[in-house]
Design a protein that fits this description.
The chain is an all-alpha fold. 72% of the residues lie in helices and 1% in strands. It has 15 helices and two strands. The two termini are 38 Å apart.
Length: 306
Amino acid sequence: MTRAEDIADRWRLQLQNDLPKISRSTHESIIQWLIGEDPTRFDDLLPNQLEIAKQAMDYRYRILCQRYLEAGPERAYKGLIQRLSSLFLIRNKIRTWIALSRDRQRSVVDVLQEVIQELLQNDHYMQQQIAWIARCTNDPRLRNALVLTSTEEYCLRPIRNQPLLVYRFVNYLRRSQRGGMTQVPAADFIRLVSEEIAPDDSEGSVSLLDGQAIAQYQEGQAQEQQQELRRTIAQEFESYLLERVDPLAAEWLKLYLQGRSQEAIAQDLDMPIKQVYRLREKVNYHAVKVFASKNQPELVTEWLGR
């Protein structure tokens, strides 16, 4: 059995446990998407690299389940925009630009939608992801959820200690200064299913920023840096819960970060489901109200999927 087959078998068990009401064909589509276009790549990875790859899949899976899988297309898209516009660095950069521009009636959401639209239409990596998702499933709703998940994960990748979305915003400014702002219809939301996106050849194939960011910081390197940041924060928060809150809360966090559902955690900890939910609320409270205020709040809230 190859490494990819072993990983796929483990995901089948997890999806059967986490998502029993969803069809087996949907499970297989999600697994195919998580593993990626080249299953043989796992065979060449060192143990630490393989662990990072597994953590990256787990991170994507949690984003999918927590925010997009069961949401309708419009609600899911609005959730993506709300998630990205809540980032302090992005929000402040866009507000500053709006204040200095001639078009001060535009909101952060308006500008962010245009940045995301340009990303989906012109970014080489996202075009590859959209094409791959189209091969994984024919279900329009699942395609939409997978594209939104991939977009969020990609936008939040740390490049030079800033989310990649910051660089895409700078790239957007260069384009808008040359050609003016693209108007997004107020009554509609951007179509995300792969065959509905047609890149404009007049814009050119790959932007100047793509060449700088993607060539210098390849996907694996970015994922490794991202996982390292999250792992550090998770370890610090686990120690905080263990020492200052409740050892059970630390156990809950460890299981949660493994992608376990609340029902599965209740079984692992041998306690009633209501008590597990109370543990979750306790952990969330300390994460947001206490721990995050002193320990890089944006990283903490990102890691916990808040």
